[in-house]
Design goal:
The complex is a heterotrimer of chains A (171), B (322) and C (768). Chain A is α+β, with helices and mostly antiparallel strands and 171 residues long. Chain A has two domains: 76 residues, Ubiquitin-like (UB roll), CATH 3.10.20; 78 residues, Orthogonal Bundle (DNA polymerase, domain 1). Chain A contains six helices and five strands, in the order αββαβββαααα. In chain A, strand 1 and strand 2 form a beta hairpin. Chain A is elongated, with a radius of gyration of 18 Å. Chain B has 322 residues and is α+β, with helices and mostly antiparallel strands. Chain B contains 14 helices and twelve strands. Chain B has a five-stranded antiparallel beta sheet. A four-stranded antiparallel beta sheet of chain B has the order 9-10-11-12, with helices on both faces. In chain B, strand 2, helix 2 and strand 3 form a beta-alpha-beta unit. The longest helix of chain B is centred in the C-terminal third of the chain and has 17 residues. Chain B starts with a strand and ends with a helix. In chain C, a hairpin with an 8-residue loop joins strand 22 and strand 23. Classes of the chains: A alpha+beta (171), B alpha+beta (322), C alpha+beta (768).
Chain lengths: 171, 322, 768
């Protein structure tokens, strides 16, 4: 801060924050720097290493998590911004009615190889189905294009999302 | 990212107080600010989180205009029934922009204000010369790698491309940007490239909404975006059209992206199109004027041809001549 | 794709139950739940964080580093610069010129390429380290930069010599040919871009070093660490349980690992160094840029008479790395006369590295494009032309092929694709919207190498069965196929087997490279499990307490984990029960494939250096995998945009150990090939040699939307000269030939021949 000469700003602006985060249904109180991203806090402060860092600049999707049910990039979200939302990471997907189906479909269709982009793919695919975007293979491809996979599992990912979406549809 | 302070503003007044401080910058979705702060291309002292401000995220129709709140998320706007009905190109441009995740995060105001992708702008540690970062420091892109750089509006001061999609459509639709202080035409929002300012807005001025006339042209608006990758890439060239067929002869408004330093209207093209019935020959003639003022490098010379062809195709499609 | 799973060829044709069956990936559940622990997911107590600092000149010298402010910055524990970093020891080099030739200067003051690491900062948190790193004041004396092979001052390069070929009299045969084509083909720098960036977490306990780092070759990396820090090999524990993609980029120990281990030693606490995405474009090399001029001559029937090749590949100014441009040219077709020359162009870049199908990919891009040009010139269908030039034996070495079913891949691929309906003339197929369609074909190969190794098998009285190997799984399916191999040989179910990989404390494993690990390890695990089975049966027949002791049976059988008299499963005893009954807690076997009498010292050398790589089949036959790609593209000629609409690819990779996972690898190679064809290329600043697009928004790899349906099928048959269990290389072959197939399809669509990758909008619009 150069000069916090406005009383309100002086009292409210913080470089270190006491944050209350809700992640996978659990409450966490942590102290973090204002500049820390949700991704770094999940991994470095909460020990939730399922969410992955692939680029740290919003260009690969490996860090995708849900905030209030919407898929977002945790590398471009400051932890402070997530304070008022409910965060769901890949670790929470096993409890998620759609996420669980997506996980099973990815294994069945082999929608993964090295597995590093997979947590982001799982979370993103879950949201993609809930958004109603999994209406066709072409729509799935577009909706899943924010999650890069260098092993090239894309055709299998499309098959997995298609199959999980079909199960969701039937229910 | 440099060590910085964070403040969550709970009212417009709080936000303005904080933004009046030197070194502060507004944070909404974060997709531009967090990215650039990590790169060191932006070194704010204070992030003023305006994401929680109430009442700025609505989409509404009022007095014949479609208003979109500055804090509305891109994804919500692209799925909004009024947007789809009254100005479909807005939705189309958002769907083609970024990824599903980013569209869930980024706000309309923030998206309009997104910064250039010029590699020389983004790498502050290697290239001190960047008039966008440091006015008067020069331009490292000259003589560099420039396939993505602008052919319209490029000067010796800056040839960095405005990367957005939505703002191209808004330019074609004569959108108005509403701030807490005034209304500005979208095409007048952006400052001269390399002038040291990105926009004409004051430091503590906050965009509250953007609006477009819900007219016949908006209802028949379209957006054509070309790029190498099928998804998740910025435009090599994009064309936004608003076509009004209700009067005597079509009234067509044209804006282009991916090729210019800011959202770029093409009055010369519009003038040719106004001069007579929209025949294939006239469209070709109009498209041929698009790159009249173009200034290219060997790297981005292909964009001249691409711009002309994309414009021609977009017009033919919009007028059902293809 | 269901084909490999349904085909007779390449499945369990030797009677195996599990190896060859399409078992789901056994580590899949852990990966979809986020439970698979990658290297940087380690968080030992007291962890400190290091960041690397890249130099910002293309060549020259670091004159000074003012680190005063950085050292004062909050949380900073240590700053390394060229002037105050301890010099590390000198491990023997296992690849020419990698760190290890002489003492290792972690941060040399001499700058040889843009982005070279010049300093590191260690702090309590990564953010603090980054803040301090930005405070370093680094003074350079810039030198002259030769940025890339495309630079005017790069010069013609120096001859390689070692890879040159003179077969027959190529110039004379070319002069006498009825049909001749000549063209120059270029590929750019390509990058591995695993989604997991490089990095390491290191800590010391006394003089024992543990490093968690993604690794394609645990033992070789451990050897480098031992050499750097002057400790015995046994004192280095390298752990790499999961590798988030490698593609050739994670074979050697690098600066980031040295810094982590060095800082951990100096600070007496664990240190993590994460390489950023941008740094991954300069911390290690990608595939070298290449350029080759090919001249092909053929007779009136299209039979190749001669190939003359003159190529150049890019390398650094300090290591003569060869991207071998005749890797495919020399063996793909029956060519009696071949002359091949290659030169190295030294420029200011990080040294290139092996990347998925090194040599084979650029070589096939040139050759398979030129073959298509020849087919067009001669008026012969490109599939037919390839069939006419099939090589009955290796034309370069004279060896017989262990197996070569390229003909079957071409014929069956053409049938599945519907190739017979292809009009020969370019510009003769259009989609409903008027855009051009084109069909292209290209073939590929991947020559096999063999390696040595060990496999451990452990059976416990608690019922657990473990396969043990320092070999790794980077998504290739090692965990799964080794469970399958063990299950067959031991007589248990794959689900009963736990496979433990990626730890240097486990039995020595081969390189996960050159697509050789699956062949080596399935053989070794089979051997160990078969030996274990004999051991268990022997104990059952002889040991005090065994229900089978004194039963006068000659042998026993093991089925689904239960020991029983042959043909009598009614009296079955679980293996664990037997162990309890005879009072054994655990039985372990380790088997290897070292030649008899190999000394411990020699074993170490061949397991940690390239000295252990050898031709399969004792060099008697020539072993390679083969493939044929059929591609349909849609080209919008006005825009220069190309969309791959469908791909049909046939593979001869011998027996597939798991057709389900092999199909994933085939498709993955094809996806990367589509990226190479249409999108990928490092862009080098012509002034300082900076890789301008060093991020995933500008170095474009395919997204899901870029990839169509990909049908893959297997024409392979078990090839026991290739590997003990009958398989040939799988992991890399898929990429070979994809780019030329796409360029050939674009030519068929438009009549435009693109000879420089990537085939992007700018490339197509530059010529129309």
């Amino acid at each position: 801060m150069r000069s916090a000469d406005t009383p309100f700003v002086r009292s409210a602006a913080r470089t270190d924050l006491d944050l209350h985060l809700r992640v996978n249904g659990r409450s966490h109180r942590i102290r973090a720097e204002a500049r820390e991203t949700l991704l770094d806090v999940l991994r470095e402060r909460l020990g939730l290493f399922g969410t992955k860092k692939g680029c740290d600049h919003g260009q690969c999707g490996a860090c995708t998590v849900l905030v209030d049910g919407r898929r977002v990039l945790s590398c471009l979200t400051l932890a402070a911004q997530a304070e008022h939302g409910a965060v769901t990471t890949v670790e929470g997907m096993v409890e998620h009615p759609v996420g669980r189906l997506v996980q099973a479909a990815f294994v069945a269709e082999d929608g993964l190889q090295c597995g590093y982009c997979t947590p982001g793919q799982i979370v993103s695919a879950t949201a993609c189905i809930l958004e109603g975007a999994a209406t066709s293979d072409e729509a799935i491809r577009e909706a899943m294009s924010g999650n890069l996979c260098r092993c090239g599992a894309y055709p299998n990912i499309v098959a997995a999302v298609r199959s999980a979406a079909a199960v969701v549809e039937r229910r | 990212m440099n060590r910085l302070a964070y403040l969550r503003a709970s009212s417009l007044e709080e936000a303005k107080q904080a933004l009046a401080l030197p070194g502060s910058i507004a944070l909404a979705g974060g997709t531009t600010v967090v990215d650039l702060a990590k790169l060191g291309a932006m070194k704010p002292d204070l992030l003023v989180d305006i994401g929680g401000l109430a009442g700025l995220d609505a989409v509404r129709v009022d007095a014949g205009r479609l208003h979109i709140g500055a804090l509305a998320r891109m994804a919500d706007v692209s799925r909004n029934a009024d947007v789809l009905r009254l100005a479909p190109a807005i939705a189309e441009s958002i769907e083609r922009a970024a990824s599903g995740q980013i569209r869930n995060m980024a706000t309309i105001g923030g998206n309009i204000l997104q910064r250039t992708r010029c590699a020389y702008f983004r790498d502050a540690s290697t290239y001190a010369a960047c008039n966008r970062r440091t006015p008067g420091s020069g331009c490292a892109a000259i003589g560099g790698v420039t396939p993505n750089h602008a052919i319209l509006g490029a000067t010796d001061a800056c040839m960095a491309t405005y990367p957005g999609d939505l703002a191209i459509v808004l330019a074609a639709l004569d959108a108005t940007v509403h701030t807490d202080m005034r209304d500005v035409a979208l095409v007048d929002l952006f400052a001269e490239a390399g002038s040291g300012r990105e926009t004409v807005l004051a430091d503590d001025e906050i965009i509250t909404a953007v609006s477009v006339a819900a007219d016949a042209g908006a209802a028949r608006s379209s957006y054509l975006k070309l790029r190498d990758r099928q998804s998740y890439e910025f435009a090599a060239v994009s064309v936004a059209l608003a076509v009004d067929l209700t009067g005597n002869g079509p009234q067509i408004r044209v804006a282009v992206g991916g090729v210019a330093t800011k959202p770029w209207r093409l009055p010369s093209v519009e003038a040719v199109l106004r001069a007579g019935p929209p025949t294939r020959a006239r469209i070709a003639e109009a498209a041929a004027t698009a790159a009249g003022d173009a200034r290219s490098t060997p790297d981005n010379h292909f964009k001249i041809r691409l711009l002309t062809r994309t414009l021609e195709r977009a017009l033919l499609t919009a007028l059902d001549l293809s | 794709m269901t084909d490999p799973t349904k085909r007779k060829h390449g499945d369990a044709s030797d009677g195996a139950l599990h190896l060859g069956s399409p078992l789901a990936r056994v580590d899949g559940d852990r990966k979809v739940r986020g439970e698979a622990a990658y290297a940087l997911d380690a968080a030992p107590a007291g962890l400190a964080h290091g960041v690397l600092v890249r130099g910002t000149i293309g060549a020259g010298t670091v004159l000074s580093v003012d680190a005063a402010s950085a050292r004062q910055s909050p949380g900073v524990l240590m700053v390394f610069t060229p002037f105050d970093t301890p010099v590390l020891g000198a491990p023997d080099s296992f690849l020419d010129g990698t760190p290890g030739e002489g003492p290792f200067h972690v941060f040399p003051a001499s700058i040889l390429h843009w982005g070279q690491a010049v300093a590191a900062v260690i702090a309590e948190t990564r953010q603090q380290a980054e803040t301090a790193a930005a405070l370093l004041r680094i003074d350079y004396a810039p030198g002259d930069v030769v940025p890339s092979i495309l630079s005017k001052d790069a010069g013609p390069g120096v001859p390689v010599g070692a890879v040159d070929i003179d077969r027959g009299d190529a110039e004379a045969a070319l002069a006498g040919s009825v049909f001749r084509v000549e063209a120059t083909y270029e590929t750019p720098r390509e990058y591995h871009v695993p989604i997991e960036p490089h990095g390491a977490v290191a800590w010391w306990e006394g003089d024992r070093l543990t490093v968690r780092e993604p690794s394609q070759w645990i033992d070789a990396m451990a050897r480098t660490y031992a050499g750097w820090f002057g400790i015995p090999f046994e004192n280095v524990r390298l752990i790499s349980h999961f590798v988030g993609g490698g593609f050739g980029s994670k074979v050697t120990a690098m600066t980031h690992g040295a810094v982590a281990a060095l800082a951990a030693r100096e600070l007496g606490r664990p240190v993590k160094v994460a390489v950023t995405r941008a740094q991954n474009f300069t911390a290690h090399g990608g595939r070298a840029a290449t350029r080759q001029t090919l001249r092909l001559g053929a007779d009136a029937d299209g039979r190749l008479k001669a190939i003359v090749q003159d190529g150049e590949s890019e390398t650094s100014v300090f290591v003569p790395f060869v991207e071998q441009l005749n890797a495919a040219t020399s063996v793909m077709y029956d060519v009696p006369n071949l002359r091949s020359r290659q030169r190295l162009v030294h420029v200011n870049t990080v040294t290139p590295a092996h990347m998925r199908a090194p040599g084979k990919h650029p070589s096939a891009f040139g050759l398979e494009s030129a073959i298509d040009e020849l087919a067009h010139l001669a008026g012969i269908d490109p599939v037919e032309l390839r069939l006419r030039n099939e090589a009955g034996f290796n034309p370069q070495t004279g060896q017989p092929w262990s197996s070569r079913r390229l003909r079957e891949a071409l014929v069956e691929g053409a049938r599945r694709f519907g190739w017979k309906d292809r009009p020969a003339a370019p510009r003769s197929m259009r989609d409903a919207d008027g855009a051009f369609l084109g069909w292209g074909v290209a073939a590929g190969l991947f020559p096999a190498l063999d390696h040595f190794g060990e496999a451990g098998l452990r059976v416990d009285a608690d019922g657990s069965i473990e396969v043990l190997s320092a070999g790794i799984d980077m998504g290739t399916g090692t965990y799964t196929i080794l469970a399958q191999a063990a299950a067959d040989a031991l007589g248990v179910l794959p689900g009963d087997v736990t496979v433990r990989l990626g730890d240097s404390e486990l039995p020595s494993g081969p390189l996960a490279g050159n697509s050789l690990l699956a062949g080596v390890m399935t053989g070794l695990v089979h051997k160990a499990a078969a030996a274990m089975r004999e051991t268990i049966i022997g104990l059952a027949l002889t040991e005090q307490g065994s229900p089978f002791r004194g039963s006068e049976l000659n042998t026993l059988d093991i089925t689904r984990g239960r020991i029983h008299p042959t043909l009598d499963e009614g009296r079955a005893v679980p293996i664990a029960d037997l162990l309890k009954a005879i009072g054994r807690d655990r039985i372990e076997r380790i088997e290897d494939n070292f030649p008899a009498g190999t000394s411990a010292q020699e074993r170490h050398r061949i397991m940690t250096t390239v000295a252990g790589l050898r031709p399969p089949d004792g060099g008697v036959s020539s072993v390679a995998s083969w493939c044929a790609h059929f591609v349909e593209v849609k080209v919008d000629e006005d825009f220069g945009t190309v969309r791959v609409r469908r791909v049909v690819s046939g593979f001869d990779c011998g027996r597939l150990y798991n057709p389900h996972l092999a199909a994933s690898q085939f498709r993955g190679g094809i996806v990367m090939g589509i990226g190479q064809a249409l999108l990928e290329g490092g862009r080098v600043d012509p002034r300082d040699g900076r890789i301008v697009n060093d991020n995933l928004g500008d170095y474009l790899i395919p997204t899901n939307a870029d990839i169509p349906d990909i049908e893959v099928f297997s024409v392979g048959e078990p090839d026991f000269r290739a590997a003990p269990m009958g398989g040939k290389p799988v992991g890399e072959i898929g990429i070979v030939g994809v780019a030329p197939a796409i360029c050939n399809a674009v030519f068929h669509a438009t009549g435009q021949r693109i000879r420089r990758l990537p085939l992007d909008i700018a490339a197509l619009l530059s010529t129309n």
